């Protein structure tokens, strides 16, 4: 019976695509082509970063590119003090560890009222001062998730900035991109707040002292409850490379939303319907009109999305 329903749903989807072609804008028409799902690209099913040393069971190591003081970062001191289990188990990080370019290991331990509800920290120079920030997800036991920025001060890790907790236990957020979405020259952080219950796409900016909200829009998701995969989003440059676009699923994960930042906030450049919810990482190749997205769906099929 389930197979019959899937077949009918697929044919309905095909008819929809014929009658209502996927149109992102007057200049962007998109096609969807089913691929051979016998071998998904490793990039969308496997996180190939090194496993964390004495870290979380599923934790990975973030590694910086180029000559930077902070070379590596990961979460350590596994703890079960926060029984949410949103990322596949109820074991979260109790500390953040970095390794510097001269081999020094430095650790920041959270108080017992917090955990790193994340798998791998992110390394980026957010404010363009030449120093690397560590971007993390910190959850309060009774307050839910927040975005927290750590920096190295001498031989000590410091929590430099943090936005407000969501305000309720077992409410989470996921990072969906760290890119130059605006023309300020600095990197911004795109996050989806509560991606499983009416997710809100927020854009945050770090000025060296604090995190400030820049834009917000409802109706998105970038995670599946219970999965370790946090890469249900991607970025690419459109046009002549002047605009950074964010690609992520709709709230039900049955559409790909293409978003860009304008002076008034987030603007939707397109919405591409899919025959089944996205549940794997989104692979992007190319840019501009030659960009292609490879998406794996919960029905076990894989699709290529590209412009005509």
Q: What's the arrangement of secondary structure elements?
A:
Layout: H1 2-19, E1 23-25, E2 28-35, H2 42-45, E3 62-63, E4 70-79, E5 92-100, E6 105-109, E7 114-116, E8 122-124, E9 133-140, E10 144-153, E11 156-162, E12 173-179, E13 188-193, E14 199-206, E15 211-220, E16 234-238, E17 243-249, E18 255-262, E19 265-273, E20 283-285, E21 292-296, E22 302-307
Antiparallel strand pairs: 1-2, 2-22, 3-4, 4-5, 5-6, 7-9, 8-9, 9-10, 10-11, 12-13, 13-14, 14-15, 16-17, 17-18, 18-19, 20-21, 21-22
List the strand order in the largest sheet.
1-2-22-21-20
**Structural class by SSE content:** mainly beta
**Number of E-type strands:** 22
Helical percentage: under 10%
Tally of contiguous helical segments: 2
Q: How would you state the average pLDDT, rounded?
A: 89
Pick out the low-confidence regions. Answer: 1-27
Taken from the alpha-carbon principal axes, the silhouette is: globular
| Strand residue content | over 45%
**Biggest sheet: strands, sense, closure?**
5 strands, antiparallel
Order of helices and strands: HEEHEEEEEEEEEEEEEEEEEEEE
């Amino acid at each position: 019976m389930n197979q019959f329903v899937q077949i009918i749903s697929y044919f309905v989807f095909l008819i929809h695509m014929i009658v209502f072609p996927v149109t992102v804008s007057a200049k962007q028409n998109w096609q969807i082509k089913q691929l051979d799902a016998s071998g998904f690209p490793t990039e969308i099913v496997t996180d190939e970063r090194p496993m964390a040393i004495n870290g979380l069971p599923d934790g990975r190591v973030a590694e910086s590119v180029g000559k930077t003081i902070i070379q590596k970062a990961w979460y350590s001191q596994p703890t079960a003090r926060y029984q949410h289990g949103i990322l596949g188990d109820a074991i979260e990080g109790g500390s953040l560890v970095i390794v510097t370019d001269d081999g020094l290991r430095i650790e920041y331990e959270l108080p017992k009222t917090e955990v790193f509800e994340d798998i791998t920290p992110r390394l980026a120079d957010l404010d363009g001062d030449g120093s690397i920030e560590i971007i993390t997800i910190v959850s309060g036991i009774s307050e839910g998730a927040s975005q927290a920025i750590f920096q190295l001060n001498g031989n000590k890790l410091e929590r430099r900035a943090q936005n407000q907790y969501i305000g309720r236990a077992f409410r989470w957020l996921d990072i969906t991109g760290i890119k130059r979405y605006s023309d300020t020259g600095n990197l911004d952080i795109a996050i989806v707040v509560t991606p499983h219950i009416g997710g809100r796409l927020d854009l945050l900016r770090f000025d060296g002292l604090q995190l400030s909200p820049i834009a917000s829009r409802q109706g998105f998701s970038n995670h599946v409850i219970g999965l370790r995969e946090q890469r249900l989003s991607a970025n690419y440059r459109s046009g002549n490379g002047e605009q950074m676009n964010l690609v992520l699923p709709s709230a039900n994960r049955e559409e790909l939303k293409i978003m860009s930042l304008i002076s008034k906030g987030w603007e939707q450049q397109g919405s591409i319907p899919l025959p089944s919810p996205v549940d794997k990482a989104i692979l992007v190749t190319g840019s501009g009109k030659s960009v292609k997205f490879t998406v794996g769906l919960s029905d076990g099929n894989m699709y290529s999305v590209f412009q005509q």
